[in-house]
Amino acid sequence: MKKILDLNDIKKLLPHREPMLLIDKISNIVPMVSATGHITVVANKFFFDGHFPGQPVFPGVLIVEAFGQTAAALSAHCIDPKEFENKLVFLMTIDKARFRVPIMPPCELLLNVKVEKIKGKIWKYSGKAIVDGKVMADAQWMATIADRQDD
After folding, report:
1. What are the two backbone dihedrals, phi and then psi, of residue 5, each rounded to the nearest 5 degrees?
2. CA 77, 81, 83, 86 torsion: positive or negative?
3. Is the N or C terminus of the chain more exposed, i.e. has fewer CB atoms within 10 Å?
């Protein structure tokens, strides 16, 4: 099992695409335990035009989304591909989200995600968003693995 997932690997695991695919790579993968998502935060991202002009701040809601994408890719990567076929990972809850320090470009944002509990198709996670060794945000959340509903 790969210990680092590049953008192409992530696209095979997640349905997200630009501009909503936020993570660039995933490293430090310990199957069913933890992983680190990486985002290169640069000023030309679409959301900085309006959040906030003149002082770009990475939106908190996108930090939570990036936590979810990292966790979903970790889960999908760890599950038997035959079992995960035609499945998606859906966010269910967000708990104890704290935004401690604004994240501003340019920087590399690391998303340290940990699996806290697995019960059937329900996964509970925790995560810390880190820039230069400093915790910028943290949260807990749950997600479920569900069948893909294609039209």
Report:
1. -110, 125
2. positive
3. C
Separation between Cα atoms, residue 31 and residue 42, nearest integer Å: 30
pLDDT at 13 (0 to 100): 93
pTM, to two decimals: 0.95
Q: How far apart are the first and last CA of the chain?
A: 33
Each residue of 121-145: pLDDT tens digit? 999 999 999 999 999 999 999 999 9
The label of the residue with tokens 């509990």 reads 117
Say if CB 79 and CB 143 are below 8 A apart: no
Look up 77 and say whether it is catalytic: no
- Upstream peptide bond of 105 is cis (omega within 30 degrees of 0): no
Domains in the chain, start-ordered, CATH in brackets? 7-147 (3.10.129.10)
Q: What percent of the chain has pLDDT over 90?
A: 81
- H or E element in which residue 130 lies: strand 122-131
3-state secondary structure of 90: strand
Output DSSP code: residue 51.
S
